[in-house]
Structure formats: C-alpha cells, structure tokens
Design brief:
By secondary structure, this protein is mostly helical. The chain folds into two domains: 151 residues, 3-Layer(aba) Sandwich (Rossmann fold), CATH 3.40.50; 112 residues, N-(1-d-carboxylethyl)-l-norvaline Dehydrogenase, domain 2 (Orthogonal Bundle), CATH 1.10.1040.10. The protein has 13 helices and eight strands. The strands form three sheets. The chain has a three-stranded parallel β-sheet, with helices on both faces. A three-stranded mixed β-sheet has the order 6-7-8. Helix 8 packs across helix 11 and helix 11 packs across helix 12. The longest helix has 29 residues. The radius of gyration is 20 Å and the shape is globular. The two termini are 32 Å apart.
C-alpha cells in the first residue's frame, strides 16, 4: 500500500523521501524520483511530514522506538501521520510521545486496497488535532478521494476497526451465499450477476465475487490482516452477534489461509 501511495505523491509534485525495512521495495520509488533515507531517524530529520504505512502495533513500536527510530531523532515541529491499521492504544501512546518532543501525531488509516491506492481513491479517516489535520489535508487528498477528521487521537483507528468489522462480515456473507447457491443448484455466475445488479451491489462484492468465480485467492487484502483487525476490534469491546461469528471464523481460518485473500474464508466455511 505504501508504494502506490508514495507514487501518487510523487506524481502530484511533492518531494518524497522513503524508508522501507525491505530495501528492495525502495528501488521502484527511487526510479520514480524519490530520495531514500537509511533509517526512520534520518527520514524525519529531512521531512516536515512523515507518513507511516505498516502492518501492526509491533512495527509501529519498532519504527518509533527502535534503534534510529523516529523518537530518537531529536527533531521538533514535525507532523507524523500513521496510516496503518493499528490499535487506538498505540496511537495514543505515540501521540503522547510525539507531543513531548514538540511533534504532532495523526492516526489516519485508510479504507481501500491496492487498486484504490494505485488510483488515489482511498477513503481516509483521521484522529487528532484539527489544526494538524488541516495542514496535511492537501497531502492526504492526493492519496485518497476523501479525508475526514472523525475525532481525537485514536478515533481514526477506531473508525477503521468498525469498517473492517463490516468488511469481515461482508466477506463471510458473500462466501456463505456462494455455498448456499451451489448447494441448491444456482449457478454462481448468475448469483454474481443478480447481486451486482441489485441494491446489494458494491465494489467489494463485485471484486470478491469475481475472485470466487475464478478461484483467485491471491492476496489483495490478506486474510491474516482481517483476522488481526478483528482481534484489535475485540480488544476494544467488539461483542455483537454477527461480528462475534466473523471474528471466530477468521481466527480459525488464519493458521492455514492467512496468506491468501480475505475471500479465502470461503474455503474455511466450505469444508
């Protein structure tokens, strides 16, 4: 996700400096005109705004507090935007640490996958200081089609967990509808046509329905990520009936199917 987001900023004319823990992933961005920083500390020393897009709380902790991390750089007056899907708690912790050093922190996770990132069509939900958000909104609007401040620090993360809970429920519902159709002699291609032309149609249903028709389980959004996100949601109080079922289904599926796409939940159910 970070690569197409960076490319959108380069295309928009922003000077971009990148750091990636996987060094081979920097090469394409370097060829597109980005500069490369050797460490997070080196990056924040050269940039006014730092954007993070990583997998989980551990990665955030390492980037902020690890050797040559963001918090050890001795800089102030920077705005750090964490666009990762992580816990509200880690955002509150890092926001406090940033504030102690004279920097500002926004949590601003995104709704959308690689295709939306490539097309700068992500939906961005932010938590944090309003003035900081307004300063970086022109940057965010080059990454996504909308950016909305939804509350104080951690609110963006919470909103993303709410949305991804719905995503998990929808993925399981689509998988179950395929199985129900197959069990009763309805062609799944016809099912997809009917759903896509009904009030239930959506980009997610269209993309994942086609993936199921083609037995394509290559990860656009890995099942392990939705399993992780549902754990984070559970940690902040998720307990409603459908969400509880989706939570358990994806936890059960993760050990075997975690590296496949979210819609591989079909395999978990269709046993």
């Amino acid at each position: 996700m970070g690569i197409p987001m960076s490319q959108s900023l380069i295309k928009a004319g922003f000077p971009v400096i990148v750091y990636n823990r996987s060094k081979e992933k920097e090469e394409g961005l370097k060829a597109s005109g980005a500069a490369v920083a050797s460490t997070p500390a080196a990056l924040i020393q050269q940039a006014d705004v730092v954007i993070l897009m990583v997998t989980d709380d551990k990665a955030i902790n390492d980037i902020f507090k690890g050797d040559n991390g963001l918090l050890g750089a001795g800089t102030s007056g920077k705005i750090i935007i964490n666009m990762s899907t992580v816990s509200p708690a880690i955002s509150r912790e890092m926001a406090a640490a940033c504030g102690q050093r004279g920097n500002q922190y926004l949590d601003a996770p995104v709704s959308g996958s690689v295709k939306q990132a490539q097309e700068a069509q992500l939906v961005i939900m932010a938590g944090g200081d309003k003035d900081a958000f307004e300063k970086v909104k022109p940057i965010l609007e080059k990454i996504g089609r909308m950016a909305l401040l939804v509350g104080d620090t951690g609110a963006g993360n919470t909103a993303k967990l709410v949305i991804n809970t719905l995503l998990g429920i929808q993925a399981q519902g689509l998988a179950e509808s395929f199985i129900f159709a197959e069990q009763n002699g309805i062609k799944t291609a016809d099912l997809v046509t009917l759903v896509n032309n009904s009030a239930l149609g959506s980009p997610f249903i269209k993309i994942k329905g086609e993936a199921l028709l083609n037995n394509n389980f290559d990860a656009a959004f890995a099942l392990s990520n939705i399993a992780k996100d549902l754990r984070l949601a559970k940690d902040i109080g998720l307990s409603t009936p459908l969400a509880e079922v989706a939570y358990q289904t994806f936890q059960d599926a993760e050990p075997v199917l975690g590296g496949e796409d979210i819609i591989a939940v079909y395999k978990q159910i269709n046993i």
